[in-house]
Amino acid sequence: MKYPTIDQSLFTLNRKNFTKQLKNNSLAIFNSSDEFPRSGDQSFVFKQNPDLFYLSGIDQEQTILLLYPDCPNPLYREVLFLRQTNDYIKVWEGYKYTKEQAKAASGIESIYWLEDFDNILHSIVNYAAHIYLNTNENDRYAHEVPYRDIRFIEKMRAKYPLHHYERSAPIMRSLRAVKSDVEVELTKKACAITRDAFIRVLKFTKPGVKEYEIEAEIIHEFIRQGGTGHAYTPIIASGHNANILHYNDNNQECKSGDVILFDFGAEYANYNADMSRSIPVNGHFTQRQKDVYNAVLQVMKQSVKLIGEGVLWNTYHEHVGKIMTEQLVNLGLISLEDVKKQNPAYPAYKKYFMHGTSHHLGIDVHDFAGRYTPFAIGNILTVEPGIYIPEEGLGIRLENNILITANGNVDLMADIPLEAEEIEEIMNS
């Protein structure tokens, strides 16, 4: 791995918290992610199933985790199944976990090769009353491809039709949203790498560079510091491109007088940063650009203050909408008459700020959490307001990552340049 070994106590505690919520005499199974074909003889870079990683710390394909805390055979209460290496794999693919390494990484004592899974499962499954299986229940996702978890469910139901099947996802949703101290530190590391990449970009950007040249500077810094790579496909959107919310082409020339909207973050040890910034190509904002920039900045700062333990998602977004409305009126983009006549289902501010302000952050960039669950201590949330003005060829978005604590909010990106004057100063230094 590119990152140092994570203390196994994190994963041991995660498993303990998970199994405490199982019904009596229950067995739970988690599968690694699929390896997806990229072309005729290649696969995409492997990305571990976040739930399996959360519970085991194992970052390798073809892995299965079995948890059965009430198993009559103590040997099988926690079992990890791994792909067994051989001389061919050693030559062509390199490193794979040994049983000893997997034990050290996960804290699980019973490690077997994958070929033993069916026999071991069959020897204990009929003593269990309930079987917990996992699927991707992130409400931002709807599957059309029958991925590994879906195929496994079909196989289990066919083989063991009379068991009571349960969903692991509701338990994982409640657990993963609240970050431990170790998870916070890993996220801080991802944020620190992101900070250094941004400062590198500030010093690199000038009129005439291509968006993809900036992207190259970012990934250089990520990899140089031991990051896995991009947390998500980066957005390097100059000028009019900034009004395309998920612009990923990154192939245009950056022109003097335009603003570049960045949305990128480093992934480190499977944990993610998520940052947005907007900078002037030539190092100087025009007055109009700065006015819009500062309007977004004010919304951001006030939004951070609204986040806290017990706050409801919808209530928070309604308050942010009111703050944004005031800023848009001040900028002359909407009028008080527009606000008075607005459709409550689609407020006037949505014309220039059409996306949500925050999402949970963790092993997934849009991390698994309850949309209707109040914010809690230990949540890490993005705060990312934006104003997009197609008729002016201008889009501004600013985004930091905020940790909720018992003593107030902590900005994990507080050391990343944010004020317009600071950005100009670095670009012109």
Task: Pick out its properties.
429 residues; 6-stranded mixed sheet; 3-stranded antiparallel sheet; 13 helices; globular
Short structural summary:
The chain has 429 residues and is α+β, with helices and mostly antiparallel strands. It has helices spanning 9-19, 50-56, 87-92, 99-106, 117-124, 148-159, 169-176, 181-204, 211-224, 287-306, 313-330, 336-340, 420-427, and strands at residues 26-31, 37-39, 42-43, 64-67, 78-82, 110-113, 130-133, 164-167, 229-230, 235-238, 259-264, 266-268, 271-272, 275-280, 380-383, 386-389, 394-397, 400-405, 408-411.
List the helices and strands and how they pair.
Blueprint lengths: L8 H11 L6 E6 L5 E3 L2 E2 L6 H7 L7 E4 L10 E5 L4 H6 L6 H8 L3 E4 L3 H8 L5 E4 L14 H12 L4 E4 L1 H8 L4 H24 L6 H14 L4 E2 L4 E4 L20 E6 L1 E3 L2 E2 L2 E6 L6 H20 L6 H18 L5 H5 L39 E4 L2 E4 L4 E4 L2 E6 L2 E4 L8 H8 L2
Parallel strand pairs: 1-7, 5-6, 7-8
Antiparallel strand pairs: 1-4, 2-3, 4-5, 9-12, 10-11, 11-14, 12-13, 15-18, 16-17, 18-19
Please tell me about this protein's structure.
The protein has 429 residues and is of the alpha+beta class. The protein contains 13 helices and 19 strands. The protein has helices spanning 9-19, 50-56, 87-92, 99-106, 117-124, 148-159, 169-176, 181-204, 211-224, 287-306, 313-330, 336-340, 420-427, and strands spanning 26-31, 37-39, 42-43, 64-67, 78-82, 110-113, 130-133, 164-167, 229-230, 235-238, 259-264, 266-268, 271-272, 275-280, 380-383, 386-389, 394-397, 400-405, 408-411. The chain has a six-stranded mixed sheet. It has a three-stranded antiparallel sheet with strand order 9-12-13. It is globular, with a radius of gyration of 24 Å. Its cofactor is Mn(2+). It comes from Pedobacter jeongneungensis. Residues 6-142 form the Aminopeptidase P N-terminal domain.
